Amino acid sequence: DNYRREFGKHARTRSGKWINQGRTSSDLAREDSMNSNTSQQQPNGPNAGDGGADERTPLVTNAASSLGNMGNLHGITHNDAGKPYYEDERAWVRWPMNFLHLTWQTLSSNYVNVLLVFVPAGIVLGAMDMDPTAVFVVNFMAIVPLAALLSFATEELSAKLGQTIGGLMNATFGNAVELIVSIVALRKGEIRIVQSSMLGSILSNILLVLGCCFIASGVRRDESRFNETVASTMSSLMAVAATSLIIPATLYASLTKSEESADKNILFLSRGTAIIMLILYCLYLYFQLKSHAQLFDAEAQEGNEGGEAEEPQILGPVPAGICLVIVTVLVAVCAEYLVDS
């Protein structure tokens, strides 16, 4: 009855004439008179308190209209049962919404992902053979967020695969960007780019990264503790790697460049050294991840004395793997245009 009475009144107001809903105009007039008398009997009008509300009282007031607009977002992202759409029982709704949800969670995980706008721009500039300087700068800026996404996807995937396989994933994809750029440069005969990239990476890790770690540790605590075995192993590996790089370079600089046989011998020595270093790296991974993994676990436990909470995992194994493949392909494309420029 309230609905019919209200509908009849509003319909009459909008159209300027009575609309017959099974009642005469006198019936509607009598009902309006009764409603006005009822409202006059209330001490503070029809809106005083919850008991004075009738069908004309708005459910959402003007003061709360902004909150009501925020509530509309809940209706957009959730179904009628109150569940998010990416948890909907209908597969044709759940899959695309789950994809959008994971994409947003991934992109919002790091502020540097704002630079992802340079990825399509760099690919377009490179495909159109634009100014080499612009191609280099834009693709360089594009690789920065891609490297962050590659690290993010690797960490998400390694967290689900266990300690050994996860550590191997981190070791493999930890320097994937440098590896991809070096492979592309080698294919194009840009030997100096590869050498400069290697030297820059080595100097950055043993000076800049190590120095920043010392500063950060010194700010937080008065004294830092290190695992003797781990530190000794790392120092030995660094000495072997440095020697392997120094010996071929020293021989090449000391010998006369006119001797063809000497160059061939140095090249043979350099390639043999590279093979030995690869074998040592594989043995080191076995030492770290399998045979003496407890040493590195103890080091991690000592470093977490502050009781820092673990970050929640965002991606599962399948989404993280897909993200890893897509980002790797994009890095390869941007590196191609970067080296070409």
TrEMBL record:
Its main location: membrane. It comes from Hortaea werneckii. Residues 34-45 have a biased composition (Polar residues). Residues 133-289 form the Sodium/calcium exchanger membrane region domain. The chain crosses the membrane at residues 110-127, 134-153, 165-186, 198-217, 237-255, 267-287, 318-339. Belongs to the Ca(2+):cation antiporter (CaCA) (TC 2.A.19) family. It is a multi-pass membrane protein. This is Vacuolar calcium ion transporter. It is found in: Endomembrane system; Vacuole membrane. Keywords: Antiport, Calcium, Calcium transport, Ion transport, Membrane, Transmembrane, Transmembrane helix, Transport, Vacuole. InterPro entries: CaH_exchang, CAX-like, NaCa_Exmemb, NCX_ion-bd_dom_sf. One of its GO terms (biological process) is intracellular calcium ion homeostasis. Residues 1-58 are annotated as: Disordered. One of its GO terms (molecular function) is calcium:proton antiporter activity. Has a role in promoting intracellular calcium ion sequestration via the exchange of calcium ions for hydrogen ions across the vacuolar membrane. Involved also in manganese ion homeostasis via its uptake into the vacuole. GO terms for cellular component: endomembrane system; fungal-type vacuole membrane.
